[in-house]
Design goal:
Radius of gyration: 15 Å
Shape: globular
Distance between the termini: 21 Å
Number of strands: 6
Oligomer: single chain
Number of helices: 5
Structural class: alpha/beta
Length: about 170
Amino acid sequence: MRILVTNDDGIDANGLDAMEEIAHGLCKSIESVLVVAPQENQSAKSNSITYNKPFKITRFNDLRYAVEGTPTDCVIFAMDHLMKENKPDLILSGINNGFNLSEDVFYSGTVGAAIEGGFRGILSIAISQCYNSSTMGKKNIYDFAKKHAPDICLKLYDAFYDSTENQT
C-alpha cells in the first residue's frame, strides 16, 4: 500500500507526525509513505489553491516535502509530480489540531486535502482529534487517534476497494 500524508497545520505539526506514524503502521515499508504538507499553518483554507503566484517547495528527503501553499496544493503537487507514475492507494490528511464538526468541514483545509484526493479517485480520509482543557498537557492528545485510526482506516480501505472491484 502506498500512502500520501498531508495536513493543514503545517509540516512541523505534531499531528502530522502522528499521522505519519499511523501510515507507517499500515504499510509494509517506510518507503511507501510520502509526506507533503504546507510549510506553515493553512487552517480554514478549505479547497483553495494557489493560482496567482508560484510557490516554493522544500525537499527534506525523497519522502518528505513542504509546500508554500494550501493543503490542496500539496495533494495536487504530490499527485501530479511526485506520484504521477505510481499513484497512492490512500491519502491520509491530518491529524488536525482540533475537531472538524458540523459546518467546520466546509472550511477545513484538512478536509479540503482529502476532498482533492477524492476528486482524483483516491480513497482519502481526514482525521481530526478533539481535545479540551482537561486533556491538554495530561497526555499526548493524539494517542487516541494513533490507537484507533489504523483499524478504522483499514476497514474503510477494504470497503472502498471491495466496492470498486465489484463495480467492474
